[in-house]
Specification:
39 residues; mainly alpha; 1 helix; 0% strand
Amino acid sequence: MKREKEPAGSKILAGFFICIITIVIFILCNTMQQSVNFL
């Protein structure tokens, strides 16, 4: 497959990826805090 240059698409994809990672880390931190409080 040929990779076409799409800087705008890459930026959107990167931003979306960073957003997902941030949300995942936030959820993990919340679950860890709840586990610590539970214990």
